[in-house]
């Protein structure tokens, strides 16, 4: 598989409320606009109009009393509300989405927030998590030593945040460090370069742990399918025994059907071992995430 052909997706903080997460997932262009500097307009009335309304209310109070002023105030508020309701629904929704995206700008990571190598790492992590969460052994609750549905999205979020931070630091580093450093002083910058490389290696190791887990789960899935298919065959053993009895005299001797039982136990043993290996990989990942 060519991992460079993979493209990462938007990563959300899994602790976001469900409604907020749906809004952000459905607003990729808005999220990009916020990253580019877009911000919602303050929800404050036009100051000239506000002063005019206040003056009118005070004048009404002076001329006709508090009751008329209250009625006029209610009328103005009602007209303002009707004006808001009469506005274009699409425009109102766009403003709402912009407010949500701006308010939670630190709770999502866009592919555009990452440089090339970091995008590749995030894409690999997302692919590994998809494989684990979509596996039959996970769906049937056989990987019960790790809460995949909670731990894996949280791990991808942590990776996304750290990859975005590494990308920002790299870009800043490239702006600060001159390109034409004389050879005799280039070593001064080496420790900073090494920090960036070490951070990248650390994040790559976390992604590789996810991929190791996914690899073990894939093997467990394959053995699990064989194990379930063997279970179906076990139920049909009497049919095979009848066929064997009816054809025993028609050809060379066949191995006894009882031999299937021992083979079935061997498949079951391999299945149990594959599940144990997947669980150990998941436990290692959990310990790594807690570090």
From TrEMBL:
- Enumerate the UniProt keywords alphabetically: Membrane, Transmembrane, Transmembrane helix
Q: Where are the transmembrane segments?
A: 43-61
Please identify the protein, giving its name as recorded: 5-bromo-4-chloroindolyl phosphate hydrolysis protein
